[in-house]
Design brief:
Blueprint: E1 2-3, E2 10-11, E3 22-23, E4 30-31, E5 37-39, E6 45-50, H1 66-79, H2 84-94
Antiparallel strand pairs: 1-2, 3-4, 5-6
Helix pairs in contact: 1-2
């Protein structure tokens, strides 16, 4: 299954010797390096949310709904060659289970 927002689709789970890739717990974007980790208010890295969702210790859009996040992410997946229908299907399957939306 693929999900993403901001940089394109990638596997949700990627095993590297029993290591699972972190994904943003807001948009589902794969976070393969610390450069895409969000930032806490004190400037430390936040490994639960990406820099696009959580750049300075708070969500860019704290009042966004799950549906709005899905609509935000669909175009990024389409740019990567995923059909709009498939993007919506995958985002609707994955995003509701992420920490921000539980």
């Amino acid at each position: 299954m693929t999900v993403c927002c901001h940089i394109g689709p990638a596997k949700i789970e990627v095993s590297k010797e029993d290591e699972i890739m972190k994904i943003c717990q807001s948009c589902g974007m794969p976070m393969q390096t610390e450069e895409v980790y969000g930032n806490n208010a004190d400037g430390t890295k936040n490994d639960e949310y990406c820099v696009y969702c959580f750049p300075k210790g708070e969500f860019v859009d704290p009042n966004a709904t799950l549906e709005e996040m899905i609509e935000t992410c669909v175009p990024f997946m389409v740019q990567q060659g995923v059909s709009e229908e498939k993007a919506r299907e995958e985002l609707n399957a994955v995003l509701p289970g992420l920490k921000r939306w539980k």
